[in-house]
Every structure is written in structure tokens, then in C-alpha cells.
Design brief:
Elements (H helix, E strand, L loop, with lengths): L1 H25 L2 H60 L6
Length: 94
């Protein structure tokens, strides 16, 4: 536990030193660039997630349609089976 806390403190010190070095060397330009790239990446991720969401909806719809069709076919087979049993006079299921 203390090792984890020590590593986090060390990481924070290194991050602070990198921040100060970049600030002195290049000013705010790297931070603005990072913010701009993050914003663009977020926009792309948002667009792709919307596309994936639409694809998932279409897959769910197709699956639901297949389920409905399967239920209709199953019901039709049951009715056909009952009709055959009535026609032949058979009362037992084999």
C-alpha cells in the first residue's frame, strides 16, 4: 500500500516537472495542441459510436424479425400437425 502511494507521489512529481519544463520551453502551445487533438478524437469517437449504435439497432431488428418468423412457422407447423391428427384420427403424439 505504501509502495503504491510512493509511486503515485513520484509520478506526480515527474508530471509536475514535465509540465514546468514544457511551460518554460514551449509555452502553452503543447497543451493547446493536446486539447485540440483530444477534442477532435472525441468528435471522431462520438461519430463512430453513433454508427456502431445504428448497426447494433439494425442487427437487433433483424434478430427480432427472425424470431417473429420462427414463431409464425412453429405455430403453422403445430396447426398442420393438429390438422393431420384430426384427418387421420390419431390421438397420440409420436
Amino acid at each position: 500500500m505504501f509502495r503504491l502511494i510512493g509511486r503515485l507521489i513520484g509520478l506526480l512529481i515527474i508530471a509536475a516537472l514535465v509540465f514546468l519544463a514544457l511551460s518554460v520551453w514551449r509555452g502553452g502551445e503543447p497543451f493547446r495542441w493536446f486539447g485540440k487533438q483530444s477534442k477532435e478524437a472525441g468528435k471522431i469517437i462520438g461519430e463512430k459510436s453513433e454508427t456502431l449504435g445504428k448497426e447494433a439497432d439494425s442487427i437487433k431488428k433483424k434478430t427480432g424479425d427472425m424470431k417473429d418468423t420462427t414463431e409464425k412457422v412453429t405455430e403453422g407447423l403445430r396447426k398442420t400437425k393438429e390438422t393431420i391428427h384430426e384427418f387421420t384420427g390419431s390421438k397420440t403424439d409420436k
